[in-house]
Design brief:
There is one protein chain. The protein has a single domain, classed as Ribonucleotide Reductase, subunit A (Orthogonal Bundle). Helix content is 64%, strand content 3%. The strands form two sheets. A two-stranded parallel ribbon has the order 1-2. A two-stranded antiparallel ribbon has the order 3-4. By secondary structure, the protein is mainly alpha-helical.
Length: 371
Amino acid sequence: MSAIAEFMETDFTQRLVDSVESAADANKKAVTNTVLAPRFYTTNFDEMDKINISSVRREWDLMMQEYEGDNNHDHFQRDAAFKDEVHTLMSKLDDGLKQEFYDFLIGSLTSEFSGCILYNEVRKNVANPDIKKLMTFMARDESRHAGFLNQSLKDFNFGIDLGQLKRTKKYTFFQPKFIFYATYLSEKIGYARYITIFRQLEKNPDKRFHPIFRWFERWCNDEFRHGESFALIMRADPRLLKGLNLWWIRFFIIAVYATMYVRDHTRPALHDAMGLNATQYDFEVFRITSEISKQVFPLIVDIDNPKFKIHLERLTALSFAMNAAKERKGVLNILNKGWIAAQALTAFVKLYFLPVIKSELPAQVRLVPTW
């Protein structure tokens, strides 16, 4: 199935945050597939095995040294005050904010565990020593992240059964190049999201309503390095970054940005609690991600084009409209939902065909996380 078909066949307009009252609710949310929820992926392992990184060998070997150094090996340990701080701070929050935070934790865990599964499956199914070694390190990192998030869910008795999640969640097949585009963007936008939140709460510690946010700075550097890995893989094969593949790159950028924007606007209380305006936050994340992605993509989306924001707001409004329509029954409402879905597709297509900004690829691929 093509990436576009996969994107469009899934309901774009997830319900607003569903209530999580038990571990069963949390596990049900984690296993559910929507465009706005993280997915699990599989790919063509034979093609992954053929990757040749010889043209970026110097930068690759330096990156491998960083992975081997494992500077975060002792980071994902909860200090003695963690659990007490959780219950002291969370007891002051209203239920709406708590539900949005649970949704954030579950979505983040599912995303991290998705990476862990993908990287581990590639590791087991390739003989290429460079790729096998890389995937071993990245699976290690993502496993730590997922486990750390799950500990926070367990504080509320909402722990996710990761073994059951692996067995029951639907897997989406992507060609290797789609894995490279999508996962690179996922890792880099993850860095941009975490570092923006960390910087905001660093300046406003009174807004830090859960201790997990104190871990975000070093955590997001793992995400940054993972993105660097895929940047090197793509730069090692210039065919991935020209011709018709430029249209695929544009698609994945728009899909990732649009998904983030719509999802974040279903969590207004979460952003308000951190002192963030969801729209301003998203555009800051887009700006950081776009600047970073110049290391590998010959184009970026023009987020300053007024129509870009207009179409994102249109998609968000349609998400709320679909959510309301799902509460009603009848033949006319079925037609109404079809009409809303068609409008969402139209808005996405308009986003896709907005002019982009071309950029020259730098001679040196690697970047330092300085944001």
